[in-house]
Amino acid sequence: MMMAKRRKGLSDRHKKILEVLEDYQDNVGYPPSIREIGKAANISSTSVVNYYLNQLEEDGYIERDRKISRGVRLVKTVAGELKETAGSVASAIDEMFRIPVVGRIVASAPAPVPASDFDYYDAETGVDVARSLLPSKEKSEELYALEVDGDSMIDAMVNDGDIVIMKKASNATNGEMVSVWLTDKDETTLKYFYKENGRVRLQPANPTMDPIMIDDPSTLEIQGKVVMVIRQVEGAKAV
Hints:
With 239 residues, the chain is an alpha+beta fold. It is built from four helices and twelve strands; from the N terminus they run αααββαββββββββββ. A hairpin with an 8-residue loop joins β10 and β11.
């Protein structure tokens, strides 16, 4: 891609990007992703965002850590003032880590597992989460993410298109929200788990839907427990 020769000083786009970074630093507490910068600055191409970020880095307005997706740190504002909170943002960057999005989970009637279910997303697809938002006992290597398909868990604040952070698990206690695989039907679903009188009840969080009763618990495999839900803004995707 060819870029126009840069003029001296900050352009309107440079200033807008700095304003976006300052807003995130002051009000969100961690840096925006490249896509979030582009959306806020009305720049559709991530390559163009990177082009301007590289120039801001050269001019000493920001620092970048290219090994992580939110590795942009504002050190100087549009007015040229040094940001006193830069250290806290650096700490926020340090505590961010990426959880891979490995596929979809149905939150409605169980749906057949597609052959490519866990290859649906490429290896780089994931969500960035602050460690402080997760229970301290959770180990990052035991976590993975799934995109929700369906509305059976809406009363649990889990909507179609949301991302659920899962902890790998093979068993559950009553009342936990789990992803399950029905081995006899080769289907998956996301529901509340209840074991009752030798049967399993998979309970939706939607008053218009009936529970799924499993007479033979050996045909059900628990694959993970929900530890966190990430609500998706309309039009946004995991990056």
